Amino acid sequence: MSHYERRLQADLDAIHAEVAAIGGLVEHAVMRAVRCLLDGDPDEAAEVILDDLPINRRVRALDARCHAFVARHLPAAGPLRTVSSVLRINIALERIGDYATTIAREAVKLQAPVPDHIARHLRSMDERTRHMLRQAIQAWTDENPDLARGTMAMADGIDLSLDNGFQDLLAAGSGPDPVPLHDLFALLIVFNRLERVSDQAKNLCEETVFATTGQAKAPKVYRILFVDEHGDGFSQLARAMAIRAFPESGHYEAAGWDAAAIVDPVVRDFMEARGLDAEGIQPVGIQQLDLEGRPFHVIVDLAPEYCRRTVELPFRSVCLRWDLGPGPGPGDDPETVARKLEYATRELSGRITSLIERLRGPDAR
Questions:
Q1: Contact 324, 343 (CB under 8 A)
Q2: Which of 105, 121, 247, 252 has the fewest Cβ atoms within 10 Å of its own Cβ atom?
Q3: Strands (E), 124-256
Q4: Which of 40-49, 135-144, 307-316, 323-332 shows the lowest per-residue confidence on average (mean pLDDT)?
Q5: What is this structure's pTM?
Q6: Which helix (H) or strand (E) holds 298?
Q7: How does pLDDT run across 145-198, given as a tens digit for each residue?
Q8: Which residues, listed in sequence order, are joined to residue 319 by a DSSP beta bridge?
């Protein structure tokens, strides 16, 4: 190994070690913040807030070290990927420190002790979140992309914990001895920040995979649901058009606010005549879908005039209303059905393209 190679490797090792050190500091800060919240310890909360300042200075110093590394070595390939990843990891680590600070600030504002059942849930989520963070840092330190990929899978369970925590808070605010509204908001923020720690740990894992293998994060595949009155007309047409035009950009489903028994044969024949896949399509009621457990990124309402008071749409879904007029109905003759579908096809073509390009960019496929 040449002198240049030894110097480059020594500088890389120092950068790796500093990432691990800062990661340990922010993980410890999260633990202390949750502990002072549950123990009702305002003095410890103040220490957590102040200790974030040295963390921020180390993050800035590491950022400067990375820029100096680029200027000194003019790296390529693996070393360049590593340094560019560290610059993004730095942001994630600093934000985790900020989340710990927010938890500590909320701790000193609580008006009453945290109820036992909420405290148990917080401890569990804290332990799982910090375990994910520690494992993500270990994957980075060991340059282990397999461990990083396995760690990323833990995020879904923590998301579910957040949802369960939210339900617990709703119950705590409406019981016989309700938690003060001020405290409910504070605890909701705490749950949210813990979930965000897991998101940043996932980002760290993605950077580990990129730095060690060169594999960039895959483009996001969006879950999109088209809904009409009975799931047997415009929604099926829109789903088939989206699949044909942008098969790699989304996972598409169709449903009705109230499901019909079958798809009108005229609708099926219309789709097949235009080269759209109509094989095996079956109306599904939106009530049959797991909207919370497997949320859709976008729900497109193709029957906005239809009453849907019985369905609660999930908070994390974006809902769009595309009014194409009345869809095919049981009283329509075949010519009327075909005319409505022809009009919907023209309208949907541009709207679907516009939606997918907003989600994935002009190169969406």
A1: yes
A2: 247
A3: 222-228, 250-256
A4: 307-316
A5: 0.78
A6: strand 298-301
A7: 999 999 998 888 887 777 777 777 877 777 777 888 888 899 999 999 999 999
A8: 299
Instruction: Tell me if 93 sits within 8 A of 64, measured CB to CB.
Output: no
- Tokens 């594999």 sit on residue: 215
What is each CA distance from 113 to 40, 110, 118, 329, 347, in whole angstroms?
Answer: 7, 7, 10, 58, 56
Tell me the CA distances in angstroms from 325 to 83, 152, 221, 266, 301, one per residue in order: 54, 44, 29, 18, 12
Q: What is the pLDDT of residue 307?
A: 59
Helix (H, G, I), strand (E, B) or coil at 224: strand
Residue 299 main-chain phi, psi, to 5 deg? -115, 120
pLDDT averaged over every residue in the chain: 90
Q: Side chain identity at 338, as an amino acid letter? A: A
Two tokens at 351? 């709207």
Q: How far is CA 262 from CA 90, 198, 275, 281, 282, in A?
A: 55, 44, 21, 9, 6
pLDDT digits 0-9 by tens, 214-233: 888 888 899 999 999 888 89
Q: 172 by DSSP, 3-state: which?
A: helix
Q: Residue 105: exposed, middle, or buried by beta-carbon count in 10 A (0-12, 13-18, 19+)?
A: middle
* 300 within 8 A of 227, measured Cβ to Cβ: yes
Q: What is the Cα–Cα distance from 78 to 37, expressed in whole angstroms?
A: 42
Domains of the chain, with CATH numbers? 3-213 (1.20.58.220), 222-360 (3.40.50.2300)
Do 229 and 303 touch, CB atoms closer than 8 A? Answer: yes
For residues 240 and 158, which has the higher predicted lDDT (pLDDT)?
240
CA–CA distance, 299 with 301 (Å, rounded to integer): 6
Q: Which residues contact 223 (CB under 8 A, 6 or more apart)?
A: 250, 251, 253, 294, 295, 296, 297, 298
List Cβ neighbours of 99 (8 Å cut-off, separation of 6 or more): 30, 193, 194, 196, 197
